[in-house]
Amino acid sequence: MKLNSVAPKEGYTWIRQGIWLFKQNPLGFLMLIFMYVFVAQLAVLVPVIGVFAVLLLTPTLSVGFMTACRQAIQKERIRPTIYLVALQSTPEIRKRMLQLGLVYAALIIALSFILSMLVDFELLIPLLTNDKAITPEVVRQIYLILFFGGLLYLPVAMLMWFSPVLVAWEDMPVGKALFSSAIACWTNRGAFFLYLAICGAMLIAIPLAIGSIFNLLDLGQAASFVIAPLSMAGLTVMHCSFFATWKACFAEKESATLIA
Question: For labelling alongside 18, which of 31, 88, 191, 248 has CA 20 to 30 A away?
Answer without folding.
Answer: 88
